[in-house]
Write a structure and sequence with these properties.
single chain, about 250 residues, alpha/beta, Rossmann fold, seven-stranded parallel beta sheet, 8 helices, 7 strands, globular
């Protein structure tokens, strides 16, 4: 029970990385707010977890929704210890010139602005508590960008830079801020990132770029998040931890 009694809000927790994190944190003794724009998905995950979880349906790009999400954690479980900004959005892998303005705005609103809005709501609570942890889920594209996802990679680069700046500014308040940088993984956005149909042959091309020879899994990201949320990582802040099977080397 590595995070016994800790309360965590996980955005984008109705599937993929977020679902994996929520489930793992509950197994390890934590309480979880399963937040997702897809309310049905959030309820499914929370109900499956049981009493250690509660669902929340909302949009991380709207401050009123973010405020309600944070308030729910305190109301339901009496406190808040960890916020994981996992919700993400991307265009389909392809030419940077073919991404329309609406999609561009959505990418930056979900991947960057949401971190800002969450900070406005959660930092005062963490300061009052005397401690706290924020984990921003970024991407290997933040540090080793490749053609095809230019604007997405840029948004994740911003997330990493913001993480480091927040870590320094909030350190005197005993608030740690870290980022996770996953590689191409088995989630609902897999074909969006690939830009082609998910076939064995197409996967083979992507797997050739990952030294450990497989795609990432939600369990990989959940394990990394669990470590950062545990007392074992109490002296770690401002890192962008690559969860990528060696892809960034």
């Amino acid at each position: 029970m590595r995070i016994q009694g800790k309360v965590t809000v996980v955005t984008g927790a109705g599937s993929g990385f977020g679902e994996g994190i929520a489930r793992r944190f509950a197994v390890e003794g934590g309480k979880v707010v399963v937040a997702d724009i897809n309310g049905e998905a959030a309820r499914r995950v929370a109900e499956d977890i049981g009493e250690a979880a509660v669902s929340f349906s909302g949009d991380v790009t709207k401050r009123s929704d973010v405020a309600a999400m944070i308030a729910l954690a305190v109301e339901k479980f009496g406190k808040l210890d960890v916020l994981i900004n996992n919700a993400g959005y991307t265009s389909r892998n392809g030419s940077m010139l073919e991404v329309d303005e609406e999609t561009f705005d959505r990418i930056y609103n979900v991947n960057v602005k949401a971190i800002y809005l969450a900070a406005l709501e959660v930092v005062p609570i963490f300061r009052q508590n005397g401690s706290g942890l924020i984990i921003n889920v970024a991407s290997v594209g933040a540090t080793r960008p490749r053609p095809g996802l230019v604007w997405y990679n840029g948004s994740k680069g911003a997330a990493v830079n913001v993480t480091k700046g927040m870590a320094v500014e909030l350190a005197p308040d005993n608030i740690r801020v870290n980022a996770l940088c996953p590689v191409l993984s088995e989630t609902g956005l897999l074909e969006q990132f690939m830009g082609v149909e998910d076939t064995p042959e197409n996967r083979k091309n992507f797997l050739a770029t990952i030294p450990l020879g497989r795609l990432g899994r939600p369990s990989d990201v959940a394990g990394a998040a669990l470590y950062l949320a545990s007392d074992d990582a109490e002296f770690i802040t401002g890192v962008a931890l690559e969860v990528d099977g060696g892809r960034s080397i």
